[in-house]
Amino acid sequence: MGSYTYPKFKYVAPTDLMTQPPQRRPLIVIGAGPVGLSAAIDARLQGLEVLLFDEDDSVSVGSRAVCYAKRTLEILDRLGVGQPLCEKGVSWNIGRTFRQQEEVYQFNLVPDPGHKRPGMINLQQYYLEEALVNRALELGVDIRWKCQVAGVTSHDDNASVRVSSPDGDFDVEADWLVVGDGARSPVRRMLGLDIEGHVFKDRFLIADVVMKAEFPAERWFWFDPPFHPGQSVLLHKQADNVWRIDFQLGWDADPEEEKKPERVLPRLQAMLGDERPFELEWVSIYTFQCRRMKDFRHKRLLFVGDSAHQVSPFGARGANSGIQDADGLMWKLALVLRGQAPQALLDTYNTERGFAADENILNSTRSTDFLTPKTATSRVFRDAALSLARHHPFARKLVNSGRLSVPSFITESVLNTPDTDAFEGTMLPGAPMDDAPIHIHGQDAWLLDQMGHRFQCLVFVDEVSQLVAATRQALIALADGPVPVHAAVVSRHAGAIDGLPVYVDTQGLFAKRYDAQVGSVWLLRPDQHVCARWRHFNPAQLQAALALATCNV
User: CATH says 15-82+121-193+296-364 is which class?
Assistant: First the structure.
């Protein structure tokens, strides 16, 4: 088997929670998967007290989600775990698509230089979960293992939670309850909340194989390969010489039979060759599902990740979109809990992440339709696109072996201030921030490592001397407002400004990506999304944009 040793986390009897009347906590999180843990860590970084329940006492068995996208890695950097995960994982940018044995298409997720993180890393989910658990404990998250949520009641001003533990049942109340208990969400079922969408009639086999192989760290996808004719196969490299191989099986395949070694091993031998030694580490069967709850907020309950929405694994949208849910939620919840924003701000979590879920479901459905054509006409189109893609660039855009996870541009969010000045490029209100290399005090750094956790304002200049005293004073004063905004200056050339950090745009990539001109200003959300931009600093405009971004209007 692989080299990973599953940890056992210490169960502590929850006698301190067994009180009458029930204790009231500001925030409870259900589920210690990647999404629930990310939410809990983010809450602690916002200074919130967090109680987390999980029915298990270890990490997920099997590699499960393995592909973590650039945007997710940037969020994990902000949470404090990105670097060790990137060091452990397998980084990649290149994907190749084959028809039989001939390459018909390839892509590069990060074609331009000047980004801290790659397009993807591949890493078994248990490594991610263990790193998140350790970080959560380091920050003081109160994790209660082997505590199963047995009942939830949502009220107008709190949520009541019934918990079963090895030492007995107890009740506890939460001002707010974040539900990250997975695709089969017991909480969702307890409350009778619907999840709507489609289950596609096809089955896929996941096989994690331990072997030494010379294949490059790329995503390889085959249509109709000779070793698995008439179907598709996907190959990914993970850490510890573990390789993820997905075989399309068809809807008529028997899930229990196909998981047996006597069925799996011949498929692997046909693909890898009888002479290559390998060991089977984990096997699972899955179907494509594209479903979502109608609403992610129900009074004091906020659903995140697979408990709120599900998509097919092709495209790596599950864990990535779930972690982005937590990223888009926790800063809003922190403002509400601190009394700095009304509850209406949490309604925008539902609209923004609902939009992202719809976008993911659309792309996932299109991938599924291409992978498994439902009609003869669809199959003719698919096969024609694959044939043309070998020689004609236009057809390569039609080849869909799983459009990969990208962050949502929430350009229609009510929290955005629409542009009134002319800008070029993609860093418009609602966009997730692009990274760029910078210098701080002569040291190499990255822009996104300075962003997040709070509202921030950036002002661009050629020389720091261009920032007039009145503007400097107004920028510094933003930190003392009811909702603090921390300002910084981005300059083409090094220099110092009393009371403000200076980020030097050493390679000009910030100016290029943000279409920066002298005096340009950006207001940035705690989740590293742009929410407003102007060509000149105006304190009244900025305050109006901040009020809009926090629903304080």
Answer: alpha beta
